[in-house]
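Subject: Interface between my chains keeps coming out wrong

I've been trying for a while to get a sensible model of this assembly. When I model each chain on its own everything looks fine, but I need the whole thing in one frame so I can look at the contacts. Pasting all components below, labels as-is. Any help appreciated, I'm running out of ideas.
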Amino acid sequence: MLSRFAPRACAAPIRRNAPIRAAFSPIVRRNVTTDAASTHAEKSDVPAEDDKPFQVRLSDEAFETYELDPPPYTLDTTKKELKQMYYDMVAVRRMEMAADRLYKEKKIRGFCHLSTGQEAVAVGIEHAITKGDHLITAYRCHGFAMMRGGTVRSIIGELLGRREGIAYGKGGSMHMFSTGFYGGNGIVGAQVPVGAGVAFANMYENKDKVTLALYGDGASNQGQVFEAFNMAKLWNIPIIFGCENNKYGMGTAANRAAANTDYYKRGQYIPGLKINGMDVLSVKAAVQYGKQWCLEGKGPLVYEYVTYRYGGHSMSDPGTTYRTREEIQRMRSTNDPIAGLKQKLLDWEVVTEDELKGIDKEARSHVDEEVAAAEAMAPPDATPEVLYEDIYVRGSEPQFLRGRIPEENFYYPDRPVEIPKSPAQS
Amino acid sequence: MVGSRLARPAAQLLRSSPSALPRSSFQRVSAPAVSRWRTYASGSKEMTVRDALNEAMAEEMEKNSKVFVLGEEVAQYNGAYKVTKGLLDRFGEKRVIDSPITESGFAGLTVGAALAGLHPICEFMTFNFAMQAIDQIINSAAKTHYMSGGIQPCNITFRGPNGFASGVAAQHSQDYTAWYGSIPGLKVVAPYSSEDAKGLLKAAIRDPNPVVVLENELLYGLQFEMSEEAQSDEFVIPFGKAKIERPGKDITMVTLSRCVGQCLVAAEQLKSKYGVEAEVINLRSIKPMDVEAIVKSVKKTGLMMAVESGFPSFGVGAELIALTCEYAFDYLDAPPIRVTGAEVPTPYAQKLEEMAFPSEQLIVDYAAKLLKV
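Reply #2:
Try treating it as a single job with all components included. I did that and got this:
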């Protein structure tokens, strides 16, 4: 019965919709720019004081919206903040370069995914939220870990597998935790429902906090991402889902993996925003707007940060078999988030060339010192005490855990339960 | 042979005195309860496993506002198996939440809530469906505390019916004990009686680690005695302690969940038929496992038989026998044996289904063979 009617019922709306879509889409369509130097300010508006606010104007092409009014195209900022943003991006990049070097020197083991080229996303987000807000991301997490408060030495120390690393040498490149920072999840897409849960907890406890859950363009095809969207909208959870679209999921171009590469529209019933992810100011403006949206109880948003990864997917990928060297070179030379902001700071006379060089030098020498300190850190003692610690919360462990052979069984000491304050609460 | 004898650490295990066991504070509170409740038989009452689980959740939710229940049909429907009946009326929709049928998503969401400091109870309608979510249970819940270097705890309870169910065929009748039992970072319990159900679930909710509570659908409706002690809202059963359900001197039956009941029936038959006394150990806790209880019993009986309903390969029975050989080989008078589910996807037709799972008769016969009676 049903099957006889189904094809006709299905076919009708498609036929009816087709001309409408064809007529409308070319008109509303405008591409978000990835120009990192597209924000404008009048030199005369820039105050002399470091902390006096002034307004910058974002490019008309900073955003594309989906069922959403765009954020204001103006952003209040200060010279101090702009300099800090610049410093942060330079520091993140310098740290990633150090990781690159250490990996090539075979001092970093296993996986190592660098975010070179994507710095504006982590930095722009952090400048729009507070330490009380929450963030979870995937395995390309070094920049986020740093922006959430992890020190360079603890992050590089972790990569080097040192005892003083951010996760005491237990997590490595993909698993870093800090205040309001939940990793660092190595399973593609798994962090998205977990992020929805973090946001759910904030709602449950009536906390005025926003949660950001980041994932890549590759992960956005995962089923559980859509499951998270559904629950977030259903329960009006205050979360900004964010697809960092760096154009390639590992080595597969977005359009070779996704039936719809408009990632900001893939929340379907969730309003979306596509953002120039190469412009740190556009990112900040978008997230600031989104945070306000969530705190007003308007529910979730789906963001797409259009960005680009200069390096390969991971250190073992030269990143050149699935894209051209010219493409990488073009992005590097014309859309670089650091160069873009640098040009603006000079144009607006926020800093002089010398001051800028000073900031560069400061960031670099700070990172270099920290990296040296990390290299000097000791690895964890290769003892059962260290191997078996923290599998369970201290004091709540089983009597013993089994080693490779029974003689290696590890017996835990008798001690009171010590529940660590989750980073969410610290 | 000499080498393998040297590698036998039974002595070390037995040396670790029972006093070392109740260790953490939430366990310590409860430890005396276990020994005390038997003397309180006068005030006991009957209760179903279903009601015991319900009471455990209600008490913990009453006690701690961070505890909430989320799962399919847990609220308005009162639970697919009515385990959460009445909780919505009592605690409201903020804390008793019907989820969409998206296991991976809602398991991930509850894990996230736990990372952010809440104490979720994530109900799976059955653990068969939790296969969709097992990545979240293992990679996001069980491993995070270790991967974070001990800074990010995850206090979450995953619960629901597991294992054999009647007439529901292969996709709805599988035992996952071995799967979860193999994961460091998880604690895994399998209650049999109403006291087990209440005490273990309450301990699971309070435990600061991720805990998997493997219930059994066929036990939900069974009545068991609840001692006065167990009726208290402070009653918890410590993990890692097995219960001697029936003392005996001739053979040790190590078992869990629904098979405990089958073993108790089998033990009675062994007694009436052959006059032998089987000791039945209800493991209660799969991870950590009470190896000490097994070794002590085998020391007494000299014979060991594992009874469980999972697939045989790489299963709970295999683990129990391996542990017995490692820690109690010298006390064994014969090779240990196991009764398990058959190595077949659960068939639908009743007579075939019966052939796929342990039965009381099979347990009696196989035990008799080991006993040479």
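Reply #3:
Confirming on my end. Chain A touches chain B through 67 residues (CB under 8 Å).
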